[in-house]
Amino acid sequence: MKPNFFCVIALALASMAIGSASADEVQVAVAANFTAPMKKLAADFEKSSGYTTALSYGATGKFYAQIKNGAPFDILLAADDKTPERLEKEGLAVPGSRFTYAIGKLVLWSARPGYVDDQGAVLKKGNFSHIALANPKLAPYGAAAVEVMTKLGLIALLKPEFVQGEDIGQTYQFVSTGNAELGFVALSQVYRDGKFNSGSGWIVPTNLYSPIRQDAVLLAQGKANPAAAALLKYLKSDKARAIIKAYGYGF
Amino acid sequence: MLSDTDLGALSLTLRLATITTLLLLLTGTPIAWWLARTRSWLKVPLGALVALPIVLPPSVLGFYLLLAMGPSGPIGHFTQALGIGMLPFTFWGLVLASTFYSLPFVVQPIQNAFEAMGERPLEVAATLRASPLDAFVSVVLPLAKPGFLTAIVLGFAHTVGEFGVVLMIGGNIPDKTRVVSVQIYDHVEALEYTQAHWLAAIMVGFAFAALLMLHVFHPTGRRKWRQ
User: Which residues have a Cβ under 8 Å from the Cβ of B80 and sit 6 or more positions away?
Assistant: First the structure.
């Protein structure tokens, strides 16, 4: 009985070890705010190129730590421009491969229709109990939100109402479930083809915060991977840019 | 070494675990008693329900709690009707969540102790004309003491180790919902590895001490471990 049992486990482990990574696959670490467009882009890319993609979504800071410790990503689509630059300096990314794939836009959004006016005056009223933002220490969209509130002179007033998500995906969750009445999220999360999917929002004027430059970089791991090169080329194409734009990003 | 926010997270975590453990002893003891004594067919499904948090990913529990405690959820409706507002992003929201999350770790050791005791001590107490309450306080509680101590250590330690649920319903508010595990996560993400190490080492030491205590408390534990 016993040897049989262990044989089964060994076989199961062996079968799992085989066939995890293939040569035609590109593994991409994707900033949480770019989740929705990336799903669409990846489907389109797979169809036109024949390559396959494995996408991981999350906070850029976490990806940095993982890449530094040997995570098997070929490409990083970061939520900022600092992390790709840093990876290049540390020899973990291919020099000269960095480019801005999208410029993120910040929106003050509520799941309730008519709650947020198109001037953001709701912020000054302050008659809410929670305003959600991404952790400004970790997420560029969180830092941008703090910048906006500081410029409007409202930071001291609003700070007691802050609830912070670890990344922009979690921040969106707080607002979309109605647990926070409103919050600063990425426009791409709530916007499609020129209008809000639901709820109400104020697209924050870009002169109130520094541009959220989202850079892509080819990682050392993906240097010789043709699928990675093809995906980066695709992201710069007009077709890809049209999709990215539809989600409210700029260039 | 440890910053003020780190210390704040530590003291908040201790406060959360203490209150949760006390609440769990109050609510878990009757549940354990019922599960140990009942012959109802409900024993098995309810026992499984209590044990769910052992198996479920904390993200599932956190997600449902976020919906349930939110403005359109049943708990949210209830707390709003009571006039205490909504529970997510509050300390008491975390207490409620932790109570669900650590429930099996308190109920099961107590239930095992009650079951191991059998009917005999209660029957003897009854023949000596002890009231049920008297029998519970002066017979059952002393006999089940190792079970209670195990429950306290496990319930406390499991609440300290909570992360996924807090992440989903906490909102990372200093001194209200930013517990140690979240603080460590933030340090790691912000690449502040030195601070992360300090807090993480404290957690390892605490977890080890808690498990040692279990071993000391449990009279039969020593034998079980050797087998």
Answer: B71, B86
